[in-house]
Specification:
Elements lengths: L1 E5 L2 E5 L36 H16 L52 E8 L19 E6 L4 E6 L7 E7 L6 E5 L10 E6 L4 E8 L6 E8 L5 E2 L8 E4 L19 E5 L5 E9 L6 E8 L7 E5 L10 E7 L5 E9 L3 E10 L5 E2 H4 L4 E2 L15 E4 L2 E4 L3 E7 L7 E8 L3 E7 L6 E5 L3 E2 L6 E6 L5 E9 L11 E9 L1
Parallel strand pairs: 11-13, 20-24
Antiparallel strand pairs: 1-2, 3-10, 4-9, 5-8, 5-10, 6-7, 6-9, 12-19, 13-18, 14-17, 14-19, 15-16, 15-18, 21-31, 22-23, 24-30, 25-29, 25-31, 26-27, 26-30, 28-29
Amino acid sequence: MVGLRRGGRAVVALVLTAGLVGCGDIVVPQSDAVADTSQDAAPDTAGDTASDASADLQADLQADLGTDEAPDVTVDTADIPTHDADAEVAELPGPDAEVDSGPTVLPCVESALSPAFGDGLASAFTTAESDDFSGTCAVGSGKDVAWQWTVPFTEWFTIDTLGSDFDTVLYLREGACDGPETACNNDADAAVDRSRIVGRFEAGTTYALVVDGNSGASGNAVLNIQPVTCPSADIGDGSALPQTFTTASGATSHGGACGGDKGPERSYRFIPPKTGLWRLSATAEPGSGLTPAIYVEEGPVCGGTLLQCNGHDHGDIKMPAEVSRVLTAGAPVTLIVDSRGGQGKFALGAEFVGETCPALAFDVVADQAIDITTQTDTMTSSCGQNADVEFEAFTGYPDLVFTVEDQAPGSPGSCSLFIEAGFNFSLSVVRGACSGAEVACRTDATQSPSSGNYTMFYGLPELGGTLTVIISPLIPQWGGWASPNVTVGMGCVI
C-alpha cells in the first residue's frame, strides 16, 4: 500500500500483487479520488521492474487527479512476498502414511483407559481370561485382566476394585507389561476383600493396572480411579510449620468424639521426614473465635484408621488441641482440624519430640509408688486434659507412660490393670509402642472418701501384642491432690 498526500488530502493507493491468496475476504472502503480506477483497463505489467511499476502508477494517478504534476510515488517491494519457482513443496501424507495416534498400547492390556479417571472406569469378566500375571501380595494365583493407565496430572489418586464380585488383588506395573511392580494390595481393609491403592502419581507416567484373583478367584472385575480430594491440602514434611490457617468456609462433613460435628474443618496431609515421636497441634490464634479439635488418621486420605483426637473447652481460654504419636518416616497421616466451637484462625504445628516412645516397661512400674511429677509431658489422650493455664501460660501435665503385653484373642482367662493415684486422672490405652490407634480412654476413676485417692480397674482388651498405657492428671497439683503418687498393678484370672 502506498500512502500519498496532496493538497491537504490523503490519497491511498493499493498495489495488488498476483499470487497473494488465503487471506480471506477483505473489504476496503474506497475514497472519491481513487474510486474510478476500478474501471480502468489493467496495464500490461508483465516483466516490469519496480521502477516501471512506479512510473505506471504515477501516470495513472496523474490522469485520475487531472493534473500535469506527477506526485512523488515510491513502491517498496521489500515487504511484498515473492514466489520461488524452484522451492520445494511439502508433500501431504498419502492414505498409507503412519499417523501418530498417541501412546502405544501395551500388548498385555485390554485397552488404554479413556477418560483417565472415574467410577466404573472399566470392567471385564476374568473367568474368560488367562493367568498372565502374578502380584507379590496375592495368595495363590488366579485369572487376571489388565488395563493401561497414563496419569493425566500429578496428584494423589485412589485406584480400587470396589464393585467387583470376587476377592481381588490389584497391582501396578510401570511402563511395560513386565515392568517393575510399584504397588500391590490384596484387601482394602480387614472387612473388605476388594483392593485399593492410594499414591501420588506423576503426570505422563504409564502403568499396566492388573486386577487378579486371590486364591484362584474370578468374576466381574470393576476398576475405579479418582483423584484424592480429602485432605484438601499438603503440608509435606512440615518444615514450613507452624503456619496459620483458618477453618472459615471449610467443609462441615466431619465430626467425632472430640467434637466438631457441625463446625467447619480443614484437612491436611503430613508426611513425617523421620521416624519418632511427633506432637501435632492446632492452637487458636489470639482473638480467634475458634475452639479447635484435632484428629489424626492413618494414611494419605480422609477416613483412615483414627489414631487419636484431642480437644478441650476451658471457658474463654482457647486450649490447644494436641496428639502425640510415634510416626514412621515417609508414611503419610491425615490431620483434620475441626471446630468444637466457633471458627477462625489457628496455628498448625508438627514438632519432633524424640527418637523413640518414652514408655517404661511394666516391670519397672508394677506395684511401685511413682511420683508423677518426676515424669514429663509427652503423650496425649482423647478424653483427658493435656494442660492447664497458669499465669497466662499453658502448663502441660506430666504423664506416666508404660507398656504392657496384651493377651492374644481367645486366650484362656483375662487380665486387668489396677491403678490408684492421689489425684483424679485419665487412662488412655494405645496399640503398639506409642504408635497405634487409641483403643480406650476413661475418666471414671472412683475417689475414696477416707484416703482421697482415686482408683480404676481396666480389663485388657485381648488384642495381642504391645499396648501403651498413659495416665495423666485431670486437674493441676494446686487443684487439690492428695499426693503425687501413682501405683499400678495387674491381676489375671485363668
